[in-house]
Design goal:
11 strands; alpha+beta; 5-stranded mixed sheet; about 40% helix; about 260 residues; 6-stranded antiparallel sheet; 8 helices; elongated
Amino acid sequence: MIDSKSFTRAAASAFALLAAAALWLAAAPAQAQGAPAADPAIARVKAAMEGFVKGRYKVEDVRKTPLPGIYEVRIGNDLLYVDERGQYLFYEGDLIEMKTQRNLTRERVEELLAIDFRTLPLDLAIKQVSGNGKRVVAVFEDPNCGYCKRLRADLVKLDDVTIYTFPMAFLAADSESKARKALCAADKARAWNDLLLNNHVPGNAGTCDTPLAQVRELAQKLGITGTPVLFFSNGKRLQGYAPPERFNRMLAENSKG
């Protein structure tokens, strides 16, 4: 016959053991319970993005996406996508190398849009020479283009450069009259610089023969739909404005040989 007191003591001991085991399992590391290990790529991607934004924005969250090797990064309400090694960022459809901040998509497009510089009809352009003029560029500008004005301010500071300016007139109703008056001035280069840098329109009637129609046809042939567009001597194309540091680097790279 089972002693009731002994049974009660045995049951109590068993219950205590079960309770202790449950507490141990609850406190045990997730790894010991068979849960998946933390994804090291999340910390790597977060660190890479924080280095990329340089404290200007807070990286709120990083998580895997359904696409293998690609992680979602949330900054505020914006979502960005980074590879698992934290090297490349997809931003507004462009592929960015995060360490160097190079826009690889833009560079590839510029490569595809390169031309043979020797085929440009330079006689249609305004020519300006600074120093020995050994570095050569050709630029398409509209007198009402804000980024053209910024680019022009950088160009006139360069040494040892030859600038061929192809004047365009399509952004505003008075673009053509401004361009014509600059082209009809006695010193076209000075008048064009003064027009873009100081918004000073020459006082002549602007009724001389100008190459504006030919430049318009040339721009269409080259696929130019906005300004500024600049070609380096090796035919590489720069669309839009580039800050001085980047532009000077591109000028050096594309003026070799």
